[in-house]
Amino acid sequence: MSLELLVPVNNEAILSLAMLPKQVIGKNIYIHTKESGLPELKGLQVAIIGLSEQRNSFFANTQYEINQFRQAFYELYPGNWNLKIADLGDLSNGLKVDDTYFAVKEIGYHLKQMNITAIFIGGSHDLIFPLYQVFQDFKQLVNMVSVDRSFDFSQEDELISGRSYMSKIIMDKPNVLNNYTNLGFQNYYCALEEKDLMDKLYFEGFRLGEVLEDVTLAEPIFRDADIVGIDMKCLSWQAIADPLKGQPNGIDSRSICALSRYAGISDRVGFFGLYELASTPMTDQLAAQAIWYFIEGIEYRFDEYPVNFNSGFLKFNVALSDRTLVFHKSEKSNRWWMELTNDLHLNNKIKTNALIACTQKDYEFAKQDIIPERWYNAIKRLN
Questions:
Q1: What is the pLDDT of residues 114-142, one digit of tens each?
Q2: Closest C-alpha among 341, 373, 369 to residue 355
Q3: What is the dihedral of CA 52, 53, 56, 60, to 10 degrees?
Q4: How far apart are CA 365 and CA 370, in angstroms?
């Protein structure tokens, strides 16, 4: 079985629990240890897996200490959670990077099959590629969201690395990528050719300033996501308290936690990862808190996917000058969706992707005869 590739949690992290109160997370989750073996997966809802594959990483010459994250995470107190959570241990590096990809894919496939939300900690951002391949095997369209300072398309001859994995994804066959969204990109880290490609493929990008000004704009993005990866190089140096491993501009610690919670609330997100982590005590604590907020989000999911408009939703028809847009608002969560109806052409892909998450602002724009940009991009991708 693929999970047999996982090695037990290091004893150092286990021993650190001895002096902690019984209420902390580390004493209320299942942990893969040498003595007890892998936890029972039946009924499990959340699984944490440590990764150390950094051969394609920005931090390739350093080694992230996953157990420092564990100690920081274990000592936190859980929220009012009713979730069965397990730390399944770590995946050792394969002989080649491709071997690690294969193992991550097998683990991801197994957990998705069991409807277990998987959290990956550590390694390089390209480890999101084998998670994309899981959806190829399931023959399902997938929406990916990256919180990243750059778009991660190919640079020169590098087809896949922590900086260029997206090129591999869009070229890999069969192509099941429905949408890719980048949150927090910074223009000076993105080549013009990358921006042109984003526009050509009708992918979505939100600049750092937009995210920091209003972090709530990310909620509908995550609501439609299946895979979420956060490249922790997106952090400002203040967030990791080490100017040598951060950058002058970036996402602050509070916003990372808010984004993680939005990702957790999404009923669709099945894979969530924190990649490219710097080895600093502040990073360990911030990663632990971001995972805490992601799990907190899972606890408070609304169970509104797939969307069922037969009950509990209000319908709004908005007549624009050249078309009518249909919006739906949940009476349970107060969240909004738009119908994707193309009057010129309906194909099978559109019929199976007839909705897109949105905000009330999109509804207000439509009432002003302005087509929401998310609706426009989604229709162009589906044609």
A1: 999 999 999 999 999 999 999 999 999 99
A2: 341
A3: 40
A4: 5
- Backbone dihedral region of 86: left (phi > 0), alpha (psi from -120 to 50 degrees) or beta? beta
54 domain residue, yes or no: yes
Model pTM? Answer: 0.94
Same domain, 189 and 78: yes
Helix-helix angle 281-299:66-74, to 10 degrees: 50
Euclidean distance between the first and the last CA atom of the chain, given in angstroms as a whole number: 40
In a domain, 114, yes or no: yes
The pLDDT tens digits for 12-56 are 999 999 999 999 999 999 999 999 999 999 999 999 999 999 988
- Please report the pLDDT score of residue 63 as a whole number: 74
Q: Are both 196 and 343 inside the same structural domain?
A: no
- End position of a domain, from candidates 245, 275, 299: 299
φ and ψ of 109, to 5 deg = -60, -45
Q: Kindly state whether residue 49 falls inside one of the protein's structural domains.
A: yes
User: Is residue 203 located within the same domain as residue 116?
Assistant: yes
304 lies in some domain? no
Q: Say what the pLDDT of residue 251 is.
A: 95
How would you label 356-373 residue by residue, b for 16+ Cβ within 10 Å and e otherwise?
bbbbeebbebbeeeebbe
Catalogue the E-assigned strands of 81-192: 85-91, 117-121, 142-147, 177-185
Chain Cα centroid distance, residue 173: 22
In this structure, the dihedral spanned by the alpha carbons of residues 179, 184, 185 and 186, taken in order and rounded to 10 degrees, is 170
pLDDT in tens, 274-311: 999 988 899 999 999 999 999 999 999 999 998 888 88
Angle in degrees, 0-180, between the axes of helices 97-113 and 129-138, rounded to the nearest 10: 50
Task: Return the SS3 of 372.
Answer: coil
* Nearest one of 260, 266, 225, 223 to 359, comparing CA atoms: 223
Strand, helix or coil at 139? Answer: coil
Cα 73 off chain centre by: 19
* 317/295 same-domain check: no
> How many domains does one find in the chain?
2
pLDDT for res 350? 40
Range of the domain at 326: 313-382
